[in-house]
Amino acid sequence: MKAAIEEKIIPIKIEDEIKGSYLDYAMSVIIGRALPDVRDGLKPVHRRILYAMSQLGLTPDKPHKKSARAVGEVLGKFHPHGDVAVYDAMVRMAQYFSCRYPLIDGHGNFGSVDGDSPAAMRYTEVRLSSPSLELLSDLNKETVDFMPNFDESLKEPTVLPSKLPHLLINGSSGIAVGMATNIPPHNLSEIIDGCIMLIDNKEASLEDLMEVIPGPDFPTGGFIWGREGIYQAYSTGRGIFTVQARWEFEEIKEGKKRIVVTELPFQVNKANLVEKIAQLMREKKIQGISELRDESDRSGIRIVIELRRDAETKVVLNQLIKYTQMHITFGIIMLALDKGRPRVLNLKEMLSLYLEHRREVVTRRTQYELRVAQERAHILEGLKIALDHLDEVIKTIRSSRTVDIAREALITKFRLTKVQAQAILDLRLQRLTGLERKKIEEEYKELIKKIAYLQDLLGDIRKIFYLIKDELKEMKEKYGDPRRSEIREREASILETEDLIPQQDMIITITRDGYIKRLPLGTYHSQHRGGRGVTGMSIKEEDVAAHLFVATTHHYILFFTNLGLVYRLKAYEVPQSSRQAKGTAIVNLLQISSAEVVTAVIPIKDFDEKHYLFMTSQLGIVKKTNSKEFANLPRAGKIALTLNKGDQLKWVELTDGAQEIILTTEKGQAIRFKENEVRSMGRTARGVRGIRLKGEDKVVGMDIISKDANLLVVTTLGYGKRTKLSKFRAQSRGGSGIKAIKLVKSSGQVVGIKVVNSEEQILLISAEGIVIKMEAKDISLQGRSTQGVRLMRLDANDKVVALESISSEENAKLDLEV
Fold this sequence. Notes:
This protein is an alpha+beta fold. Helix content is 30%, strand content 25%. The protein starts with a helix and ends in a 12-residue tail after the last strand.
């Protein structure tokens, strides 16, 4: 007994067994579960559901039946798997937000875009939808092959005839073993137009096809951005594009706005999206939203996002796009089974294989109809013979003792076939009337015409494709509808960082020890002349605040250094700090050397040929360079001005090339000249003389002359005054200038100048970080030779180091935005 058992043991390596078993499993999953057939676009479970429901008679003209009944039919006859898998597949075919053209007409709760689960199958009811009948059409005409079911007690179709190009119009997704498919849904009318184009011209290119099939068309609508990813998918079978929600802006009371989302990207869960937005609001990643509501109902999606009055609509919208599923990436993998083999197909191949399937179906249908017609004509020919010899036929039948004898007698006497003889024996007496005889003759004539037509059809493949074309046009007329997803040309999936940053006016401060920070402009409130100011930054005792300027968060900031180099940042890249914080070391933001100090900073919106950067050095050298020269700056910076030995670049202004310039020296000399006296030069040029200096004097300020403005002169010990610019006559560039202020010991040296009007505000900052903001009109208007009045009360050893002017509407320099 033991020996007999041992003889049945077959030695096999475990790795070989695992490899073989896993390969069998993988092929079963690939062929039998996960991937659709390119011909009818269905996986086995979907095909079996439709076939079983058709066998149950659950057609659109019949009442709904319980889903459990349909699921039981599928499980018991064709699909021996879990009922949950079958019901889930049935539910998806009934969901209007999952299928572009639902194949199941569901009655009851079949889930929602909020991700709600469908009701149990004992509660819901189903029947086939009209499009599903087109997939099953002509199934009983031997158009496709049938195979045994799992227990070989029944037959099931290996593929459906599919009058509709279902794989593309409803798409498919699935994960097999080592491969996956993700085919998006398309518009039926467009796909049919593509099929017709291929019938008319087999050599049609992909570009030709994309004229009628511009891209996917999702059941939930939305925007598809860019055509590059779609073209790649249609040409190679793989591609990526972005899908965005559709929204509109609504004005509400008191100037407030709201964003109303009406369509979502495909397969995005609405409830999860709303929860995500609420979470981002709580975490303050998205600011500017005052209220969030989901007002969706049976008529459609409506997510209401109300904005605060001060919110920037574009910024909030960009943040929603960046951080939520209002903007998603959709990856296409056009993988399907072609003759049982998984293949990644391009668009033309998919359409061609579908048309080849339809050619085979129509051919087999025609052959079937021809055979049936010929068989019927054959019987009618026998009936006609019987009617022509009616008396003899009756006599022969009456004289026969049995049916078999009568059949043989008819065959012998009238040269009939067995089928014809049996038809005569089965003939009812009422068919012997004159009217019935006429009907037989007419039927025979019609059959002869039909046989001739079918034979002609089978003899010319072009006529078969013309018939396919007519049937496709009929499908388009019957089920075609407008496109839901709008395709837009520009690729919007990549958002710049600044798209997420609100555009705000900021004050940016830099110390001489190289610390930089930005603060909202509203941080400082106006005070009267002679006030103490507020602490603008916390700095080391030996540090000195050197620069203060105004820009919006979206401006470029050009940093010019004492060595004549220029660097660039976006304003939002400067870290925002509190009023008392000292800021961030500028060396962490710019690649400047230890020998460099930032001496001038220019906010600029963009770079073009109409604007110039006017530079002035400490030794009175001036240069004008077109702004486009600074459009492309590396992180390491570039030369802005080639300096003479011992000189430093100190001031830079943005101009339109036709301004007047005023320079002022530490000892109070000022010169006014026309900008066009300085020709435009390249970035690396040395410049020309702007003012002739005496002794150890040096330039301490440069500004642009403006109409109806005054020259504000401020000294190191907090004194200053306004003087009418008309007091400074225009001179030729390179002169020594004229007196701008009378300097005494109590006033100190000149620290800087600004050209201001009475509507502007002035910011003064001291070496100890004290900042004061005042109205320009509060500063005394005096002549050129006066010493001015006290503007800022300083502690001992403190002094004014910087000043800035701010327009009541916007910074005067920001009016020169490019």
